Each structure stands twice: as C-alpha cells, then as structure tokens.
TrEMBL record:
Residues 683-716 form the Gram-positive cocci surface proteins LPxTG domain. The chain crosses the membrane at residues 690-710. PROSITE patterns: GRAM_POS_ANCHORING (PS50847). This is Gram-positive cocci surface proteins LPxTG domain-containing protein. It comes from the Bacteria. The lineage of its organism: Bacteria, Bacillati, Actinomycetota, Actinomycetes, Micrococcales. InterPro entries: LPXTG_anchor (IPR019931), M28_fam (IPR045175), PA_dom_sf (IPR046450), PA_domain (IPR003137), Peptidase_M28 (IPR007484).
Length: 716
C-alpha cells in the first residue's frame, strides 16, 4: 500500500523534527521515493518473528521465561542481534547495564484467620521474621466510606499511636505508593497493605512500585478494591465491637452497692469487678489481628539493551523506534512485549531491502528491564551526553500490539481524546508524530482512538529529555467500553488484554487481526521518518533518446553525421557555488560511445566533504551519453567549493576524463572579463554539426533535472 505524503510534513520539516537538515550531498541518478509506503510490512512478517520469540520464551518456562536475568532473555537478545546483522544494513551494538532485581520467597498474609491474596510491592523490604497476632488498624486522616479520598496514609500524621507495631490498611490515591510506605515507616507500622481504589473494577490487581528501596522500610503488599473493602469492613466492625465492650466494662467497673448489709455490698463489688474484667477481655478479643510474612531479596543482574542504527543516512538527524524485549516471570510475554519487538524486527528487515539509502538515520532500540520500572530505556537515555541526545529528533514506542480484546490506540500526545496527566512533559513535535498514524489510519478508513500519554512505557525517559514521542498500543489492563467495542469488536467490560502479565500470554492468545492492523502502520511510520520525498518526474517523462515530434523548421538540407570523435564535454567547467546548488548544475556529455549501451559516470570530489558517487545513462543512437550533477543543500553552499574529477566509462574506447570546479560567488567566469567567460565544452557549436545538440536541447534540460532530483546513491 502506498500513501501520498500529507501537507503536515512540510510543517514538521520546518520545525526540524522529522525531516531535519541533510548533510551536503551530490545528486545521483537514482531518485528517492515520491510517496511513503508501508514497505510491505504485514502481520505474517511480524508473526514469523513472534513465533521465534515465543519459542525462546516457552523453552525457558522453568527459568522465568524472558524476565530480567534469565537465560530466556539473553537468548532473545541473541536472536534480535543475529536477525539485524544478517541484513547488513545496520550497526548493531549490545549495551550492558546492571540492575538490582527483587526476588520473592514466601509471602503470606492472614487476617482474622483467613488468607488474603496479595501482591508484593516492588522495592519493598522484607519482614525480619514472621509477624504474628499484630493488630490491624486504619489511618485516621478521614473516613473513606464515601470514597472521597480519605484513609490515604500519605504522611505519618495520618496515623495515631495505634499504628505502632501494627498492620496498617491504606487506600490507593493522592500520593505515590512510595510516599505511603514512607509514611507507614515513619509512623512505626510493622506492615502495610495498600488497596486499589477502582470501584468500577473491584477485582483489578494492584501492581505497585515504591520507586526505590526505603531504609528500614515497612514491608508493603497490595490487594484489589474488593479485598480492600472486605478488610476495611472487618477493621471497622472490630473497632465498633471493641468500643462497645470497653464501654460495658467501664460501666460495670463504676457500679455502686447500696441499701444493703456490708456483706451484700462486698458481694456486689465482686460481681461488678468480674463484669469489668469480662468487658476488658471482650474488648481485647474484638481487636482484629493478622499474621504477616514477606520474604524478598535483592540480586544484582547484568542485562542488555540492543541498539541498531542504519549505516546510511544522516547520523546527526536520528529518528528512533523502540520496544521492550523483556517480559514478566509469570508468563511467556508474547504480546507483552514480544509483539512490539517482532514488529520492529520486521520493519528493520523491510527497511534494509529498500532500493535507496535512507536520508535520516534510523535507530532501533530493544529495551531490557522494562518490567522492572523502565530501567533499560532510562539507562540508555541517561548514558547519552547532550550532543548525542540532540541528534535524536523523535522517538516512537510500540508496547503491545496484539491484545486479544484490542483497541487501535495512538499515544494521544495532543490530548484530543485523553487529557494529558498533570506533570507529564509533552515535547513540541509529539503531536505531529501522532499524526503520522492518525493520517495513515484515516487514509485506510481504520478507526482508532487516543490512549493515555502518561509516560507509562519506554518513551518516558525520552519525553523527560525533550525528545518528541508517540507510538501505538493495543491495550493492556484497561477495560473495553461499549464505544470501543462498536469500533473494534470484542467484549465490553473485559480487559483489552485478558492475558496481561499472566501465564496465558501465549502466541495462541495473540490477536492476528490486531497484528495485521498495526504491522503496516509501523512500517509506514519507519518509512516516513527515514525518507525525504522527492518530486515526481514529469508525466509523461521526456525520453532523451527520442527527438521532438515536430521536425526542425526549416529542416536541414543535409543529414547530420554521427559524431566519430570520442570526447567528453563538461559545461560549465567553472561554476559558482550558488549556481551549483540551483537547478543549473553541471551538464556532462560523452560522445563516441557505442549506441544503445550503458555509460557510467564517476564523480570524485577533491574537497574532502562530499562523497564520491556514480551515475549511469543509456547511450543514444547518436553515440552520446548525457549526465547531470548538482549540489543538494543550498544551506551549506560553501561545502561544495572545490574541484571534481569526472570519468565516463562507455563502450567504444578508453574511459573519458575531465573535471570541473565549484568556486565561491563572485569568483566564477565573467567576474573580471565583462561576462564573456564560460565553461566551454568540446562539442561543436555551429553549423550542421550542432544539430544533434539543438534537437536534443529540450530533452537534455529535462534529463538534467530528472537526474538531479534524488539525494541517494543506488545500493551496490
């Protein structure tokens, strides 16, 4: 499928985002693309790589699949590297880094004799020994029964003295998980449970990270909204029972004997004392208690990012694409994120097969330790100095593109569908990157929606450093709405990926339909950022070997003799730099070649700034081969100043050689001789001998323009 470029690209180029400036180059005979294409990337190509990644993961099921520090992840890295190296189009590097990995042992929480399903918070500390019979208490900042945001436990002041040595129960919200754990630590709590606050999804698990280890921190786990509400009710019921029992004991303890004999009073005192003691025992029995064990250890693991950059293209104008390669230990991670990784591999292979070199360098990144908190991508960005960061003009992220209950989502960097969360940086140019996808989908009538631009995936470090970003996403733990089901099908009320972070995230549960939609969109985005489009040639193009339809008027009386002299004409031989980067350029003609053969021109610059290149042309019936050459980048006009050796190799004799010179403005022909200087040439200019040039003048001009449209050299 081919799509014509949209007008927004011109705006983007002005901003220097996508198309940027190119290094000084000479125009060669092979022009670049006139419209963007998906390069043939399709679902089948992605699924081929995805099957390989799946096989690697499942073969290491007993070792944690493709999680951080596993043999499965290392094998996946090797597969990515070998695939890229086989194309010959990329410089491939493996970036090693270390990460402190958390590994859990026994984690068990029992409240009021019943086991509670919990998840361990990332970066939590362990219990030194099992905690038994500890009280369960709540923050005192507010009553959360109205779900208005109370009982948050965001500071130590949100607790009273009852938190000391207790298991505290706090709601998600208002502040970070790390701040809640710090507040519980400061209040002296023995353990902390954070429950989810999503009443619309009561069984939604809460995967929390504390953001870093807290010295002597309170061991922390999380539970669902439903489990949290059950625990909350138990704590509140126990508190009411405790209050009632304490009141009963107090009243009994203050009873008076009266109206009887002393012995009767003594008996009454004894009775009320027993009642008080019973009341206190009842109050103690009403306190909700728990047993809490959390075993976890931290192991430093070495892992890797894989970085691949095109050998061709402007390496000061890098367009980057990324996906995380690691998964979770709970499952094979085929959709999350084998799917995004496989799509990058298919796109890289397609890019390597394109007929012309890229204009802008394309850099691919496969990230490690994403599931540990975006560690790999963050490490990569932080490893770059300001100069290297400045070379990256854009970043596109692909994290899950095959969800079984999928949506077609673009990272909503303009906030048109989903408001940008507070505190999220949106670098200028991000909206234009999203438009690559939305325009593509509009052209093929594919419904799509914006998704949270929240920094939840590997683009976070890039936007934090001012690099524009966008990407695609088929959904994870979000819930499909009726509107989304109308657009994409699927089941309302179910997660977008019902296998998210589960053992069932297998290749059998990946949506091929979703992959078929996303794969060409990713290929199209890579092509769009890799190539600057050239103007289409004239329609129909002028054939330089065919003379004009109308005969010369008046016709010549004698036939034109075929040139028998083998010579090279370079016109002009001296040209000012501004003219060299204009439509004028330099025209080269080789005569005395064998008709209907192919001639090759080689231009060798002697200024050290421009690359040597070749151009081919067909020899006409008159034995002449014609070429055109000019500079491309008018903004770097002075870079072209210098001499250029020209060699034309054609059948019929030895190679023909010559040269031309590009000089500064004002130093060219005619600067000091009244304008009578010129580049000259070796072809006849008058009389009947000039007729071949006159007849072909129009064709030569068109040919020269066509020859100079591109900025690329044909791949060898």
């Amino acid at each position: 499928m081919k799509l014509r470029t949209k007008s927004w690209l011109a705006v983007t180029a002005t901003a220097g985002l996508v198309l940027g400036g190119v290094s000084p180059a000479l125009a060669a005979g092979t022009a670049g693309p006139t419209e963007h294409t998906d390069m043939g990337v399709n679902g089948d190509a992605v699924m081929e790589h995805l099957q390989k990644i799946s096989d690697i993961s499942t073969s290491h099921a007993d070792e944690g699949f493709r999680a951080l520090g596993t043999p499965g992840y290392e094998e996946a890295v090797e597969y990515v590297e070998s695939t890229l190296e086989a194309t010959g189009a990329f410089d491939v590097k493996r970036q090693a880094f270390e990460h402190e990995q958390q590994k859990d042992g026994t984690v068990e929480v029992v409240v009021d004799g019943e086991k509670v399903d919990v998840n361990t918070a990332s970066y939590t500390e362990a219990t030194e020994e099992p905690l038994t019979g500890i009280p369960v208490v709540l923050p005192v900042d507010d009553d959360n029964s109205d779900l208005a945001g109370g009982q948050l436990g965001c500071s130590a002041d949100d607790y009273d003295e009852s938190a000391e040595g207790a298991l505290v129960l706090a709601s998600r919200g208002e502040c970070s998980f790390g701040e809640k754990a710090q507040a519980a630590t400061d209040a002296g709590a023995a353990a902390l449970i954070i429950y989810n606050n999503d009443a619309d999804n009561p069984d939604e698990e809460l995967n929390a990270t504390l953001g870093g280890r807290i010295e002597n921190g309170t061991p922390t786990v999380t539970v669902t909204y439903k489990v949290g509400q059950d625990l909350l009710s138990k704590v509140e019921d126990a508190a009411e029972a405790e209050g009632a029992a304490e009141n009963g004991g107090t009243e009994a303890g203050s009873g008076l004997a009266g109206g009887g004999e002393a012995s009767e009073a003594d008996d009454a005192d004894e009775t009320t004392g027993d009642e008080a003691e019973a009341g206190n025992d009842a109050a103690a029995a009403a306190v909700l208690t728990a047993d809490f064990t959390l075993e976890t250890e931290y192991v430093t693991s070495t892992t890797w990012n894989v970085i691949a950059e095109t050998k061709a293209g402007d390496h000061d104008n890098v367009q980057m694409f990324g996906a995380h390669l690691d998964g979770v230990a709970e499952g094979p991670g085929v959709n999350d994120n084998g799917s995004g990784s496989a799509a990058l591999l298919a796109s890289a292979e397609a890019l390597a097969k394109q007929p012309t070199d890229v204009d802008n360098a394309i850099r691919f990144g496969w990230w490690g330790a994403e599931e540990e908190g975006l560690v790999g991508s963050t490490h990569y960005v932080e490893s770059l100095d300001d100069a290297e960061l400045g070379k990256i003009k854009s970043y596109m992220n692909f994290d899950m593109i095959g969800s079984d209950n999928y949506i077609v989502g673009t990272l909503d960097s303009d906030g048109s569908d989903v408001p940008i969360p507070d505190g999220v940086n949106v670098p200028e140019g991000s909206a234009e990157l999203e438009k690559v996808f939305t325009d593509y989908f509009a052209d093929i009538d594919q419904p799509n929606v914006g998704t949270d631009f929240s920094g939840r995936s590997d683009y976070q470090a890039f936007i934090d450093n001012g690099i524009p970003a966008s990407g695609l996403f088929s959904g994870a733990d979000g819930t499909k709405t009726a509107e989304e089901a109308e657009m994409f099908g699927g089941t309302v009320g179910e997660k977008h990926d019902t296998n998210y972070h589960q053992p069932t995230d297998t290749i059998e549960n990946v949506s091929k339909e979703s992959i078929d939609i996303f794969a060409p969109a990713i290929g199209f985005a890579v092509h769009t950022l890799a190539y600057d489009l050239t103007d289409a040639p004239t329609d129909p193009p002028t054939d330089p070997t065919t003379p004009p339809t109308d005969p010369t008027d008046p016709p010549t009386e004698t036939p034109t003799e075929a040139p028998d002299e083998r010579a090279l004409s370079i016109d002009p031989k001296t040209i000012e730099a501004p003219d060299f980067v204009s439509e004028k350029g330099v025209q080269v003609a080789a005569t005395g070649c064998t008709a209907d053969s192919t001639a090759t021109m080689t231009v060798t610059p002697n200024n050290g700034k421009i690359e040597k290149f070749e151009q081919t042309a067909e020899v006409g019936a008159d034995g002449t081969a014609r070429f055109g050459v000019r500079g491309l980048d008018a903004s770097m006009v002075d870079s072209y100043i210098g001499t250029y050796d020209v060699t034309v190799d054609c059948e019929g004799g030895n190679p023909l050689t010559g040269s031309f010179e590009v000089v500064a403005e004002g130093d060219g022909p005619g600067a000091g001789d009244g304008g009578n200087g010129g580049g000259g040439g070796d072809l006849p200019r008058t009389g009947n001998e000039a007729l071949p040039l006159i007849l072909s003048a129009g064709a030569l001009i068109v040919l020269g323009l066509a020859m100079t449209l591109g900025s690329r050299r044909r791949r060898s």
